[in-house]
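Hi R.,

As promised on Friday, here is the backbone we talked about, encoded as structure tokens. Could you run it through your design pipeline when you get a chance and send me back a sequence?
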């Protein structure tokens, strides 16, 4: 039954970006707990291989993998037509890329998403589009004097979907290329809904964390690369290197467990009457820390799950220019207001920051250990 007591009918979902972190967890949820079918579109399927084979799996036949790149594949519209709902997860969403690959970032998050929106609108197909909490940019609080009493007022820093402005840095701060592209595609989707009747839901994730997040360089990703903050820190811990705190680690973030977040997405999928036309923050305001506090907590959690002692110097400070390159800027604080999603879908997250870090680091430690073991077992050439 849906939230209004009506039977939920099985649907076919076209999931673009199904092979990524969020897509893999969403596919697992759909296969194990629902009767829905999934057309899984992505360039890679490593993170969902366990769902695709063997044929004896209980959901065999309900998930089909289609290897394609939405940039230039004529099959895209046909696959969207075959489905009742399209979920678009495809994006370049790694901060290290925003000011070093700004063109790729803008094309990936705006230009490449245009055909998806167009095909859904023209064929009367429902769309759930994944945006980002970065569309909010900086808080009003960050522009107030340090000693202003207004800094304590949540109205100046809690981010609301229907009220908060989107404040970005100057044009030469190319770090905002991602947020700007995401905001523009949001506005286009909203306009399609207003002018052409597109049924849509926009999701703004606030740092979703869990197993299979990002990559371990050289193990399940490229040898060189800078993933997002939590994966960056976990990679340092795995290699017994100090955690690098950019500009002192003073930025504040909230983190939500991927399994909690996927519950919210399933509610959107199965309650279109409550979700259509809405933008939803999906995060956990109770799990807020500075990046420095996150590093300290992760060091403690990793010591527990690995049995290894902490380094004598667990963290080092680096400048954003040194770490990310020229053109970097950042948002100061990201706390989601949960009023709309709670009212429409009755959703609230419940996993603490410690618990989600323990789950994630346990997975990362096991994956890393297995990969090292395999590499050592390989015969060497004479």
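Update: got your reply. Pasting your designed sequence below so it's all in one thread:
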């Amino acid at each position: 039954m849906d939230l209004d007591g009506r039977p939920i009918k099985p649907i076919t979902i076209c999931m673009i970006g199904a092979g990524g972190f969020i897509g893999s967890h969403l596919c697992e949820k759909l296969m194990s707990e629902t009767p829905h079918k999934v057309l899984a579109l992505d360039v890679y399927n490593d993170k969902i291989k366990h769902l695709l084979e063997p044929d004896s799996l209980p959901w065999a036949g309900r998930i089909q993998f289609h290897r394609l790149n939405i940039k230039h594949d004529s099959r895209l519209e046909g696959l969207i037509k075959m489905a009742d709902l399209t979920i678009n997860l495809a994006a370049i969403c790694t901060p290290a890329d925003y000011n070093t690959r700004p063109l790729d970032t803008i094309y990936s998050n705006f230009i490449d998403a245009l055909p998806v929106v167009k095909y859904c609108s023209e064929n009367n197909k429902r769309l759930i589009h994944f945006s980002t909490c970065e569309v909010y940019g900086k808080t009003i609080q960050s522009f107030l004097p340090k000693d202003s009493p207004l800094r304590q007022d949540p109205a100046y820093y809690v981010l609301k979907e229907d009220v908060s402005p989107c404040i970005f840095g100057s044009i030469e701060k190319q770090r905002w290329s991602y947020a700007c592209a995401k905001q523009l595609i949001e506005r286009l989707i909203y306009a399609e809904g207003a002018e052409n009747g597109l049924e849509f839901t926009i999701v703004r994730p606030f740092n979703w964390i869990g197993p299979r997040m990002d990559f371990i360089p050289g193990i399940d990703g490229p040898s060189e690369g800078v993933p997002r903050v939590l994966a960056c820190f976990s990679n340092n811990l795995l290699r017994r290197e100090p955690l690098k705190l950019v500009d002192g680690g003073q930025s504040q973030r909230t983190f939500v467990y991927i399994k909690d977040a996927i519950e919210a997405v399933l509610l959107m999928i199965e309650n279109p009457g409550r979700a259509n036309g809405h933008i939803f923050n999906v995060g956990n305001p109770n799990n807020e820390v500075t990046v420095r506090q996150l590093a300290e907590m992760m060091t403690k959690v990793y010591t527990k799950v690995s049995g290894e002692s902490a380094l004598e110097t667990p963290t080092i400070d680096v400048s954003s220019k040194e770490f990310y390159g020229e053109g970097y800027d950042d948002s100061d604080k990201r706390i989601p207001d949960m009023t709309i999603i709670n009212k429409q879908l009755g959703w609230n997250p419940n996993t603490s920051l410690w618990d989600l870090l323990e789950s994630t680091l346990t997975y990362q430690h096991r994956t890393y250990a297995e990969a090292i073991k395999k590499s050592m077992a390989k015969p060497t050439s004479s």
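One thing I noticed while checking it: The first strand starts at residue 12 and ends at 16.

Thanks again,
M.
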